[in-house]
Amino acid sequence: MNARKKDSEMTDQATRAAGPVPSPQRAVRDVPDVPKEPVFTTQDLNIHYGDFHAVTDVSMEFGKNEITALIGPSGCGKSTVLRCLNRMNDLIPTARVSGEVRYHGIELYGPKIDPIEVRRRIGMVFQKANPFPKSIYDNIAYGPRVTGMKVDSMDDLVEQTLRRAALWDEVKDKLKQNAYGLSGGQQQRLCIARAIATNPDVVLMDEPCSALDPIATLRIEELMAELRESYTIIIVTHNMQQAARVSDRTAFFTVKVNETTGDRTGGLVEFDRTTTIFENPSDQRTEGYISGRFG
Amino acid sequence: MALLTAPTEPSSVGPPLSLEPSSRRLGEKFIVALLFGAAALAVLITVGIVLAIAGPTIEFFRQVPFSRFFSTEAWAPNFVPDGFGVYNILAGTAAIVLYSCMIALPAGLGAAIYLNEYASHRARRILKPVLEVLEGIPTVVYGLFALAFVAPLLQEIWPTFVPGKLGDPPGFQFVLSAGVVLGIMIIPTVASVSQDAMSAIPHGLREAAYGLGSTKMQVATKVVVPSAFSGIVASFVLGLSRAVGETMVVLMAAGAIANLTLWPNDPVLTMTAFIGRTATGDVGFGTTTYYTLFAVAALLFVITLVVNMISIALVRKFREVYE
């Protein structure tokens, strides 16, 4: 019944075939003080679900070709902010967004904006690998097909995409097989490949490794480091080490409690270069979270 | 400070330790037996029906050869000279199934897609109960609906749509009116089973599709329907079986003339209508006509069995196991 193989077994095989996995490397990159070319700029972003004020007053910038990590305890609104950037929150009928979200200077929640066009430029990878119950090939080809991308050869595009996602060698002999036969880690990399097949500008990742074992996680982190060259990546993660390993900048969110009403809302505490956040945070709450004292 | 200590010896008084079952378990055994009986009943009844049909059917084929039954000779079991060409009433059933499925399958699937993917919360709250009410209307009411409304309407518009000699309006009982009404009757079954299958698709798949910039229509046609395909096939087969087995509507609206035809304008006699009509009429026990009833019933049984077996095979083939 369960076609999914043990993740660790599969990854071990893949590892043996592809040679040793290099040890995780701390990203050593020059990160400017502020993002040079912001892809997204939010200004006083507030998000409500019905009466619930989920996120309050978030103002930040996401730099081009950078990896920005959003970290913080549960309920701090990091995923909500992420889903606001490609208008996935539109799928929730009660969600309401106010304030400004600019994407290359264009107001994302402007009256003439089509969320479908937005999502065609801003790809997304989800917490749980969610390949379509179709072949590996059709999973990759889905995006180009629905967006009506002009493609000379779909076969070439599928191959290129899978190579960019470092999945080609593992799946090249079973492109026509159902994606559900892949291991969990491979499925998630397939989902990343599927997201970049349409050549989006940004890839949003919502806790992409939370369901994976450490080896599969490592491979995805390596992949992200490679993809950074061509894409802007924004990742929500519960794993602080992951944020420290992969990201250029880190935004720390937390749950803020209104002292008079007792209402809880998520908000941004500190946003800086990852090295600064992890080595020299300026807010006590950040320091407390990073060092594991709360949250 | 007192350290936590393991409790010392168990208190020496009290009943001796016993691990034997207490008598209360007998009740449980009784209930299990009762539940097994309930489950076995269905199997026993099925076996009973097969046996009850098998005997008279064998007797029928002793009196009438296979080659006469499976033929296009006239269908007139209780006339002189008699005729047993079952193809005539098989065609009647096929015609009804054809037209009713032409209506029920697309409309049922469409309703399911609308309910699951497009309908607002409010629209769904109104539509679903209405569909369920439609499912609960007695078939005889549908039969009346066919005779009183659909047949006259079709009689009126038929010549407008069909030119020439074929454009003669039909009589008051004919294939299309029964087929249309039967189709309407089956829509809720197809819709509700398909929609159940669609709503069982993990939300993540829909999110993935939207995240890639799919339109609502693309999500519905390229992700939801293919992912729910096995359930949709099951709903189609269920609809088809109902059309094959439905009796009252065809008895009232399709006519009583065994006709080797699929033409929508003709009256037909279906297998079920034959059994319904003949069995409630004046049939002497042990006559050939009596045995004919069982032969036709056996054929119906085999047809629905084959349809269901095909359906199970299809459902297995297309099933995706979502975690």
UniProtKB/TrEMBL annotation, chain B:
Domain of life the protein comes from: Bacteria
Stored InterPro entries: MetI-like, MetI-like_sf, Phosphate_PstC
Gene3D superfamilies, sorted: MetI-like
Subcellular location: Cell membrane; Membrane
Main location: membrane
Keyword hit for Aminoacyl-tRNA synthetase: no
SUPFAM superfamilies membership: MetI-like
Membrane association type: Multi-pass membrane protein
Key words, A-Z: Cell membrane, Membrane, Phosphate transport, Transmembrane, Transmembrane helix, Transport
CDD domains: TM_PBP2
Function: Part of the binding-protein-dependent transport system for phosphate; probably responsible for the translocation of the substrate across the membrane.
Family to which the UniProt record says this protein belongs: Belongs to the binding-protein-dependent transport system permease family. CysTW subfamily.
Name of the protein in its database record: Phosphate transport system permease protein
